[in-house]
Structure formats: C-alpha cells, structure tokens
UniProtKB/TrEMBL annotation:
GO molecular function: carotenoid dioxygenase activity; metal ion binding
Transmembrane regions listed in the UniProt entry: none
Superkingdom, natural source: Bacteria
InterPro entries: Carotenoid_Oase (IPR004294)
Known cofactor(s): Fe(2+)
Pfam family, one: RPE65
Keyword list, A-Z: Iron, Metal-binding, Oxidoreductase
Name of the protein: Apocarotenoid-15,15'-oxygenase
Annotated cofactor note: Binds 1 Fe(2+) ion per subunit.
Keyword Iron carried by entry: yes
Length: 501
C-alpha cells in the first residue's frame, strides 16, 4: 500500500498502477450470504467506533450464468458491518424484491434492465415490454427507525436491520403511491431551520418526459413526510444526485436527449437511448425547499453553465447572494453502448471525473466555475454536520495517479482551506469504493474521525474493510478487516451510530 509520497514516485513511471484483469475481479457475483464475526484483522478497531456501516450495490452480475449487460442492472445486495466494543461483525443479504425472487425461481432473466440487459430471445422477446424490475441496488439508509434499500426509479424496500430480511415496500403511510419514485440520493440536513433546528431527510424524484416533474420530499426524524411539493421544468432530465442548502435544493440538468424508439422496439435498454449533447449548456435548477401560500414570488430558478455531466455532488452552501456547490463533473456522459462489455472498459479512452466548484449568483443569474481537483475522482463525502454548510474537508475515492483516467484505487483527503492533499492508495492490486466519514464521538474538529471503505484486494480475491484516520491519510490504516470473500463493487451506503448484531 502506498502513501502520497510513494504513489507520486510510481505515478511518474510509464507503467499503469493497475491491471485490467485485477480490476475485473471485483465484477463477479457473490451468491452466498454470510453471517460472521471478523477475526482476521490487521491493526486494531478503535474502541470508541461503535455503530453500523451499511453498503448497497449489485451483488449479482449474472442470473444462473446469463450475464447482465451493465452492473447497474444487478440485483441489490446489502452488506452490514457492525462495530461494537472493538469488534466487527459482517452480514450480507440480497434484497428479496419481487423480481429477484421470480428470476431466482425461474433460473433465468425475466426482466429487461434500464442499462441494456435484455431478456433472451432477441428484440422480439423485448419489444413493447416496459415492465422494469425494482432492483433496490443503489443506496441503503437508516432513518426514522427504518432500514431502507433505495433505487431511484421506484419505491424503497424496508429491511430488518438485524437480519437484513426484506419486510416489504415502504410507502410512508400512503404518501408515496405504488411505483412512485423515491431517489437513491437523499441528503441529511443536520439542523433544519423550518423544524426548530431538528435534523431532517431531504429527497427527490423525477418524472421525465417532454417536461420533467421534480418532486421534493422532506422527512422528520420519525420518518414521516412533512413536506412534499412538485415542480415542472422544460425538457428531458437524467439526474442521479442533488445537493441542499438550508433554503434550496440544487439539481444539475445535464444536456441529454432520449430517443425511446429503440427501447420500445426491444433493441436497446432505456439507458442506451440517452445521448449527450455537447453543444448544449448544462442547466442548474434551484428549487426553494419551503414554499408557503404567501410565497408566490418564490419560484424555480434556472441558470446555465457550459456543457458537462454531473453524477455526484459533494456539498453546497449559501454565501451572500451565491450558492457554492462542489461537484464531480465529466466532460461528457460515458454512454452505454449496446454491444459493449463493461469489463473491457478502456479507461484511457474516457475523460476522468474531476472536482469543480460552481458559484451560482442568484441575483445576477450567472454561474462561474473553477477546478478544485484535476485527479480522477468520484464518490465524495464529508462530515455529516457540514451538509448544506460551508465545509473545509472532503474525502473522495480517487485514481492512484494524479493524471489521466483509471479505476479508483485510492482515497484522497482535500483541505479546501490550505490546499493540502493527502492520499492513501491501495495500488497496485487494490480497488477502492465510496468512502464514508464517521465523526469521533464528542469531537470538535471537522476532520476528527475515521473514513470507512471497502477495498477489493485482487491478490487474494477478497475484500477488506479499511479504517483510515481522517486526520492523517499519510500513514497506514488504523485497521484492515479481511473478509472471507469478495464483495462486488458497490454503489452507496451510510453509517449509523446504532449497533445491529
């Protein structure tokens, strides 16, 4: 494993920091479900680290040997790592969605996937079939004493946090209707100004078409939806994430078009029918979080900036007449090709995601931006008390080398005040995932805590739970918890101080 100085020396050589064969190892199904205490540990788990890390992602990359076309089409598998009194317990379980159970019983693909997975039988077997499987594979949150597996195109699935048993779909006491979307990227406001400074969860859904309807949901600490309002915006929108401030929700409306005909005729998945429009601007949509009847002058604002594609935002905050938002921006959308194999991705042919800061001037209706980090990076995280507020530190999954595009193999700590960068790398044979920042109990400093993440180790074909000291990445991890198996590359997850074992 490499610290910042060592990796900088390696990165200036002509050899890659990874082999594609090693990277491909993290894209195998994990069909077993485990339940055990983790005893193979390097270092020591901090005794004051108590709580549960939940992770979600596609656990199946095939159905009985029939490969899916894109990992985003894979059935959701929850991993739970519980920390308690210096020990750690692992459990994983698939979300028993209706589609998962049907396909496991049939032993074959029965559903088309959004990102190109087709049922056997060619286009005739797929034409005019619009029924999609709720795969519950994108995020997992614990809120209002409920554990919810999220997929942005439909309602959540509720799970038992101890056993990970699937309990059914969650409709929030009838506020959600059957099949209504509830995004996989909620934001947790640590101190909501509308609710006596109590925490709340803010989420959204989009219903795309010739115009797109944005619906904003806000949930109190009991899990009750206390605010819900919808807004129509012209044009087709393809949006995965958003950011919040105390007063606003901010969306980046990426410049894309959708041609439904190949999807309708069974020739392509819906995701393969989305095309990036490089000559069109990216639109920034700013929606007030609270709109009272007397606030008719409060309305949706739409600003424009140069073309780009954003999957994930790090954070946003208000500063005078501006909203500042830090986002991972790509030069264009990495499009899913019908005959492509995601395991054969040519990283050198793709532009990297980089961290940019956007200044949205609400008074002048202008946007300016500046590059914060040129290194290929994704999955930003920060101290949970800084969500929607000015922040100093960000933690991001990153490439090993400072230039070019590559798989994530490292974790980068960014000090936005001093400009200092710290990087811990798992190269050459380790591959990184989304980091999660966990504050130390009763800590007063923004970077006083730990960064938790899963790292796939190709040398052993197993995954590790890595615990890094968030104050100092220029050292080896505090602990590496060696699992008995690998975990396929996941998407998102969250930490709760609640202990489930």
């Amino acid at each position: 494993m490499q610290t910042f100085e060592a990796q900088e020396q390696i990165s200036h050589t002509s050899t890659k920091s990874y082999s594609r064969n090693d990277w491909q190892g993290g894209y195998k199904s994990l069909k077993q479900e485990f339940d055990y205490w983790i005893d193979d540990i390097e270092g020591q788990i901090p005794p004051e680290l108590n709580g549960t890390l939940f992770r979600n992602g596609p656990g199946l990359l095939d159905i009985n040997g029939q490969p899916i076309h894109h990992p985003f089409d894979g059935d959701g598998m929850i991993s739970r790592i519980t920390f308690s009194n210096g020990r750690a317990h692992f459990r994983n379980r698939f979300v028993r969605t209706a589609g998962y159970l049907e396909e496991q019983k049939a032993g074959k693909l029965l559903y088309r996937g959004v990102f190109g997975t087709q049922k056997p039988g060619g286009w005739l077997a797929n034409a005019f079939d619009f029924k999609l499987k709720n795969i519950a594979n994108t995020n997992i949150i614990y809120w209002g004493n409920k554990l919810l597996a999220l997929w942005e195109a439909a309602e959540p699935h509720r799970l038992d946090p101890y056993t990970l048993e699937t309990l059914g779909k969650e409709y929030f006491n009838g506020v959600l209707s059957e099949g209504e979307a509830f995004s996989a990227h909620p934001r947790f406001d640590p101190s909501c100004e509308f609710d006596d400074s109590k925490p709340c969860l803010v989420n959204f859904s989009i219903k795309p078409g010739l115009s797109t309807t944005f619906t904003i949901f806000e949930l109190d600490t009991t899990g009750r939806i206390i605010r819900k309002h919808a807004h129509s915006v012209p044009g087709f929108a393809f949006i995965h994430d958003f950011a919040i401030t105390p007063n606003y929700c901010i969306f980046f409306h990426n410049p894309v078009t959708f041609n439904p005909i190949p999807f309708v005729l069974g020739m392509r998945g819906a995701g393969e029918c989305i095309k990036f429009q490089p000559n069109q601007p990216t639109r920034v949509i700013i929606i007030p979080r609270r709109i009272l009847p007397q606030d008719k002058r409060k309305k949706v604002q739409i600003l424009e900036t140069q073309s780009g594609f954003v999957f994930h935002h790090a954070n946003a905050f208000e500063q005078g007449n501006e909203i500042i938002i830090d986002s991972i921006c790509y030069e264009s959308l990495p499009e899913v090709e019908p005959e492509s194999d995601f395991r054969q991705t040519d990283f050198d042919a793709l532009k990297p995601g980089q961290l940019w800061r956007f200044h949205l001037n609400l008074q002048q209706q202008t946007v300016r931006r500046n590059l914060l980090e040129s290194r290929c990076c994704e999955f930003p995280t920060l101290h949970p008390q800084k969500v929607g507020r000015s922040h100093r530190y960000l933690y991001i999954g990153a490439a090993h080398a400072p230039n070019g595009n590559a798989p994530l193999q490292a974790f980068l700590k960014m000090d936005l005040e001093s400009g200092e960068r710290q990087l811990w790398s798992a190269a050459p044979r380790g591959f990184a995932s989304e980091p999660v920042f966990v504050p130390r109990p009763h800590s007063q400093k923004e970077d006083d805590g730990w960064v938790l993440a899963l790292v796939y180790d190709a040398s052993r074909d197993r995954s590790d739970v890595v615990i890094l000291d968030a104050r100092n990445f220029n050292q080896e991890p505090i602990a590496r918890l060696h699992l008995k198996h690998h975990i396929p590359y996941g998407l998102h997850g969250n930490f709760t101080p609640e202990v489930f074992v």
